[in-house]
Amino acid sequence: GSGGLDGFTCFAEYQSKGRGRLGRKWYSPVGSGLWFSVLRIHDLAMDGGWRVTLGTGIAVAQAVAKLTGLTPALKWPNDVHIDGRKVAGILTETRSSLNRLQSSTIGIGLNVHTDTSEFPEDLRETAVSIRSAGGHVARGDLLVEILLQLQDVSTWSGEQILNVWREKCQQWGRRVRVEGDRGIHEGIALDVAEDGAFVVELDSGESMKVHSGDVTHLRTVT
Q1: Contacts of 54 (CB under 8 A, 6+ apart)
Q2: In this predicted model, what pLDDT tens digit does every residue of 20-63 receive, in sequence order?
Q3: d(CA 61, CA 169)
Q4: What is the pLDDT confidence band of residue 17, given thresholds at 50, 70 and 90?
Q5: Is the distance from CB of 61 to CB of 113 less than 8 angstroms?
């Protein structure tokens, strides 16, 4: 079967057409980061794709923390931040058959050595690299550690993934704007639900679950 391909990893030294979610470009010059895709073979319920996305965020954050001493935070659904700026993005594409998710191609982009001045101007306020955050690590070491962490997290229960993800997320209690499957809403970030959805308390007091979309922190006006 295709099980022999599990963990197959494709690595790019640079990307001319790096892409993120919603068709965004990803800045990825030669030698400055890790841009790679990992194939995972699994057997999950059709609504279980969140385990792969949230689990990958955990794996990247844990690998960075272990090798650099930095403390990355997770942002729903698939970003890794350091000091409020994005250091890594994750794009997951799943394949299904017979109403089960059979495999996922996990694309990971991670800024390692990029100097702040090297980022395009429109990204300098929102992007960060491990080096510009004060961390030092060899890209090869970090790649290996991420793959080891991915392997480990893939054995976790859904409950364990949710609990660790909650701990590493710094959005709770903050005012956010959500653009997703239910339009655009603002509210307070509450929790991540048992099905991986992001839960926001709207100004009406109602709790809303967001299954796919984008979350933006709103600066509080004083």
Answers
A1: 74, 77, 78, 161, 162, 165, 192, 196
A2: 554 555 565 667 899 999 999 999 999 999 999 999 999 999 99
A3: 11
A4: low
A5: no
How many residues are recorded in the chain?
Answer: 222
Q: What 3-state DSSP class applies to 179?
A: strand
Backbone angles phi, psi at 76, to 5 degrees: -65, 140
> Per-residue b/e over 121-140, b at no fewer than 16 CB within 10 Å?
eebeeebbbbbbbebebebe
Phi and psi at residue 16, to the nearest 5°: -90, -20
d(C-alpha 88, C-alpha 57), whole Å: 9
Tokens of residue 142, six digits? 């970090």
Burial of 6 (C-beta count, 10 Å sphere; 0-12/13-18/19+):
middle
